[in-house]
Design a protein that fits this description.
Blueprint (H helix, E strand, L loop, with lengths): L4 E8 L5 E2 L3 H5 L10 H8 L3 E2 L13 H10 L13 E6 L9 H8 L7 E6 L3 H15 L5 E8 L8 H12 L8 H4 L8 E8 L9 E10 L8 E2 L2 E3 L5 E3 L5 H6 L6 E2 L1 H22 L9 E4 L7 H10 L13 H4 L6 H10 L9 E8 L4 E9 L1
Helix pairs in contact: 3-4, 9-10
Length: 379
């Protein structure tokens, strides 16, 4: 088995940062009415700026595949050229199409002159970590000498007003208040676009910071809990999901079937406690001393969860002091599968890391409550 190192990282955030007051200029007004929920949601999530692959007319400026390819292009240099890549592993929630696979489209965007193995991980926030794990295991087993792993999102085009106007119009016809359900509007003010990419190799780079991947663990609680975050379906009274394919096509727009939704009732109940439970399991499994961890990078969807997460970790004997935590949510927003990649890239290139330090990664996914965590060592 080979050691596996993140030898280079790169981030791509499309266009300029967008402040809270300008969000509806890009996303538009549902039913031509300013959102009443926006201010409350933004106050709780504590996001100040985010990035959209949109112009001010709500028109797309990049596809997800282009955002991803731009992040990957930042990995290439005199030590690692595009044609040296042996494996491309991509994770996203928001692919541009159902088929072909996201990694296939990214490979096409890169303009390479050779074939390469590709892997696509689809899902929610953990899809980026799943993509990383595929590359990690491939290099560790000696099947590949290197792998490029990426987490990316382009949520903005899912959140433009035209995607919700039909639902509002349908409510008018039913003589109800034309206000889109909170479970759908909630996420309009939470999500951002961007991508982060890692180069994995079986040797560290001399005279540069590399991060050795010690382990990556995954946990799912779908056997215990119903779905919380979903799209392309609608949640039923019994907690089951009814697929878009089982709805008449004229209902797809009326009910915003393809919109990303979140059941906030069960989000608070489980998201933190299950995260702490899974992390405690990993610390016990690897006999890891919490005192040995120097940096904690925990992906959170909202600043609302920041204090609660620290407390839940402390409740299971993982009381990391605040000076060890690294967050960039308020500046870049919630980029789903790309968030942990972008946080690692910022820390890795900050000049603050010292050899031998341990970096803990924690990624929750509220889809049906799945979690991942990883340990890196600075080399």
């Amino acid at each position: 088995m080979s050691n596996v190192y993140i030898t280079k990282s790169s981030t791509y955030l499309p266009n300029e940062p967008i402040v809270n007051d300008d969000m509806e200029s890009y996303l538009g007004l549902v039913n031509n009415t300013p959102s009443k929920a926006r201010a409350l949601i933004l106050r709780n999530n504590q996001i100040k700026t985010r990035y959209y692959a949109l112009d001010k007319n709500g028109q797309p400026t990049h596809t997800n595949a282009q955002i991803t390819a731009n992040a990957i292009n930042g990995l290439f240099d005199e030590n690692f050229k595009k044609e040296d890549m042996e494996l491309l592993s991509c994770g996203t929630t928001s692919a541009d199409q159902i088929q072909p696979s996201h990694a296939s489209m990214v490979h096409g965007e890169l303009g390479m002159n050779k074939s390469v193995e590709i892997n696509t991980s689809m899902g929610l926030c953990n899809s980026g970590m799943n993509a990383l794990n595929y590359g990690f295991l491939s290099v560790k087993a000696g099947v590949k000498n290197n792998a490029v792993c990426v987490g990316s999102e382009r949520f903005s085009s899912w959140m433009t007003a035209d995607k919700f106007d039909h639902e509002a119009e349908n409510l008018k016809l039913l003589e109800e208040r034309p206000i889109v359900a909170f479970k759908r509007e909630f996420l309009r003010w939470m999500l951002s676009d961007g991508a982060g990419a890692f180069l994995l190799e079986n040797k560290p780079r001399e005279n540069q910071t590399s991060l050795r991947i010690e382990w990556i663990d995954f946990y799912s609680y779908a056997h215990e809990i119903e779905a919380c975050m979903y799209s392309g379906c609608e949640k039923q009274e019994d907690g089951s999901l009814k697929s878009w394919a089982d709805y008449p096509s004229d209902e797809w727009l009326k009910q915003s079937i393809f919109a990303l939704k979140q059941d906030t009732k069960i989000l608070d109940q489980y998201i933190l406690v299950k995260g702490a439970q899974s992390l405690r399991t990993s610390f016990d499994k690897h006999e890891l001393d919490p005192e040995s961890v120097d940096h904690v990078l925990a992906h959170i969807s909202s600043g609302y969860f920041k204090d609660g997460l620290k407390q839940e970790f402390a409740n299971v004997g993982l009381d990391f002091p605040w000076e060890k935590w690294f967050y960039n949510l308020s500046e870049v927003g919630n980029i789903g599968a790309g968030s942990i990649f972008i946080a690692v890239e910022q820390l890795m290139n900050s000049g603050k890391l010292k050899k031998g330090e341990k970096i803990l990664l924690c990624v929750p996914e509220s889809g049906r409550f799945a979690y991942s965590c990883a340990l890196l060592t600075v080399c």
